[in-house]
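Help! Submission page says 'invalid entity' but I think these are all valid:
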Amino acid sequence: MVDVALQGGTMQTAQKQAQEQAQEQVDRSKVLQRLRLGDIGFRWLTRLAAITVLVILSGIIISLVHGSWPALRAFGPSFLIDETWNPVTEKFGAIAPIYGTLVTSIIAMLIAVPVGLFIAMFLTELCPMWLRRPIGVAIELLAGIPSIIYGIWGLFVFAPFLQQHVQPFLISAFGHIPVLSTLFAGPPYGIGILTAGLILAIMVLPFITSISRDVFEAVPPVLKEAAYGLGCTTWEVARYVVLPFTRVGVIGGVMLGLGRALGETMAVTFVIGNAQRISGSILAPGTTISATIANEFTEAVGDLYTSSLIALGLILFVITFIVLAFARLLLMRLNARLGS
Amino acid sequence: MVMISGARSPLYTKRRRRNVAMMGFSFGATAFGLSWLVLILGVLLWKGFSGLSIAVFTQMTPPPGSAGGLLNPIMGSLIMTGIAVAIGTPLGILAGTYMAEYGRYDKLSSVVRFINDILLSAPSIVVGLFIYEIMVATMGHFSGWAGAVALAVIVVPVVVRTTEDMLTLVPDTLREAAASIGLPRSLMIRRVAYRAARAGMITGVLLAVARISGETAPLLFTALNNQFWSLNLNAPVSSLPVVIFQFALSPYKDWQNLAWTGALIITLAVLTLSIAARFLGSQSKSS
């Protein structure tokens, strides 16, 4: 009896255990199933987010083409070379803003590239260690200042200074030299293409400096040491060893800065003068693509006017896209070489 | 003897002079670069500090000729920045996670990386035109939502970039340890990789906030501007950069002064954010 009862008891516990085990297995498979689904779900969520980045870019291109279609159809290819910009007769051409964009960016690069390279050389070769970080951070803070601050500063402080002190000097100094006299002709307005170019130079300086510094630092020390061992001066090492080795990266950094300069809006809008014309003198007011859009878009009446402004945006995007893509390709090539 | 005569040779003198000149140039260039920072910050403090008072933070933008503050643009900027970060951060973190964790070497990642780098420095005014086309033109009116989405489009590439960089820095041994105790991949990413890369990812978000809090161009024709107190995001919303733009170009002296004060507030906020981000970034690297 007792035996049977005992046996019955163990059987009951065994049954219970088996049941529990089965239960646990069901639970475990449920949990694993849930984890697996969560895993797949999360993977697809991240994939979707990555694809969204591509969707944003395609969305920008499609919406700009769609928005500029009426203007492109009305004016055809001559939109690119026509200088007229007349909202009253609804006749528009983009060459004046394109010209302004290119000239201001060229002025900016002419100043910012040598200065940026010299600062990068200072930071990597000359500067004492303890000063490198503070100076590097200070230069990078210049990049952090919002562009509207450059604009308001340029309009109220920098432009009057140029008008009173620098431009009269330029006009009188170059007034009798054939080519330069047209380049620096006319009254000193203060605002104009030159002022916009100078402000842009200050704005892109940090970009060029920080990328050049990073690629200069990536030069293998043995190369520099070998050159110093031969008796090279610091300048000779920088010019004939560091610069040739990092050429691709420096060009990439310069193109990145150029991309910024081409698309910069607010700082330029304040100081360019907003005149829809091409003038031989860089002291004269002009306009850029982004400044034209920023100034006129909200006041544009009529579909053709709005569409022409969006077409300007499309041109700007295409130009900067090409420049930036080129910059990235160069920087990727340098990284591949340094990595190998 | 040869050495000494060599040291006095004209060639050597020329090379040495050239070196001294070039070093002088590089010293001068650095001073030139730093002087702009000092000049800009100095003028901002000098012009903007006198206008700084409690009224700036408690009163509405005034009509020309009367006193007022910048309360509505400050609120508008805060709200739109908040929404932009709320939309852009998760999207950017997820996309960065895919590129660093799931498809580090696949085709999609390298394409996204390339496109993202271009979006990172694409002109912001083009983003404004894009949002105008898809939101303002279709809805028929300017709105705070459009402004927030335009800013979110600028946030995404910044966050994608820093998230990917920071997750790539997380050592693989951590991932292997997590996998060896049977942690599924998604949990490993969320519980281990995110935790290890947290400081860097927060740095990215701070940098994104610093970037958009000064952005003007994408707001000009999405959120437009609003002279009055309004928290309705379906209507035009005023923002600090756009108000600075409008007030600075106005002929009224008191508006211009308010613009300087606003410029000082934005700059201080942006510089504080980027210094904080840098501090956090350097801490996460050293640990």
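Support: the input was valid. A stray whitespace character was the problem, and the output above is from the cleaned input. The CA atoms of residues 74 and 207 of chain B lie 19 Å apart.
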